[in-house]
Amino acid sequence: MTNNISLYFHIPFCIKKCDYCAFYSIANQSEEVKQEYFEALLRQIEFFDTNKHIKTVYFGGGTPPILGIERLCALIKAIKEKFVLTDNCEITVEINPKTVDLGALRTLKAAGANRLSVGIQSSCDRILSLIGRIHTFEDAKKCIADARSCGFKNISADIIFALPEQNEEEFKKSVTDIIAMGVDHISAYSLQIEEGTPLYLKRNVLHFPDEDNEEAQYSFLCDILKENGFSHYEISSFAKDGFESRHNLNYWACGEYFGFGAGAHSFYNGKRFSAVANVNEFIEKSYISLFAPTDYEQAEILSQKELDEERIMLGLRTSKGAFIPKKAEETAKRIATLGYGDFENGILALNSKGFRVSNSIIAEILI
Ligand code: SF4
Fold first, then answer.
1. Is the pTM of this model over 0.90?
2. CATH number of 4-252
């Protein structure tokens, strides 16, 4: 275990639910609930004692600005007052382009946020509207320009591929438009059609790309991002040199993190556990103790075998790779010979081709 830890804050509020969203987030919450939730997060910060230094803080959601910019800044202040932050502590805030203006971005920057993760998803307004996003591409461009003008040097954009009703040309244009915005990091996810979402109800009406098209879109993304100076450092993540998400790297390296808020996950004291995904219940239990809103007590301490397997599974998601046990070395050599990555000094590191079939590779290694 290192002497550092990451903190995650889940802010489960949005202006409106996107049609594909299965995350724990609620639209149209009252100011009263937001204030109570904010106070519950402050209580959790107060309860949380650690000698470890905080190396990253991540506000995710949901849409964190919907909690209120002043409240977000007050949380950052409380974190800085309570804990020791590493010199270059990465503080990320997820934003939706429609939910922040120049003033809000300035306030966040002044409070100490130094990285933004912007949900852009596509440059095509027709598609954005089709999947229920509340912003246009023009909103996204303005948001990035505003963020740069108030000093944000580390900006990530989310892209969704395998979207419905989009031809190849439109998809390629969307990716090149987003690259042209000059962001430093891109996370690219294929659209998942989750049961219970409005998109699921429309799954037989809309036209979705088949598996081959989805694969072609992912290949295009990998190639064009590489051509534009991004390294493919994790299955879904691409970064310009030095702009890898340190928060996520900590997850993939099996580092410790504590999740604050309803539905937040933690890996702490050797246990993986999560908090109740219900704002009211979370607020109620936040008065009792740090762990009361979570299933910490029921969670088992991970065995060495489970930890080793997690290290392999998570490590193989990244270009750093994972140390492969002796019994799987022949498999790792074969995977490297087939061009899916490199196997050197006992470490198998997949490349973009390997990432595409990483599930099967991980399953083979873990047999
Ligand atoms: S903004 Fe994000 S969290 Fe909120 S509904 Fe849309 S996808 Fe879900």
1. yes
2. 3.20.20.70
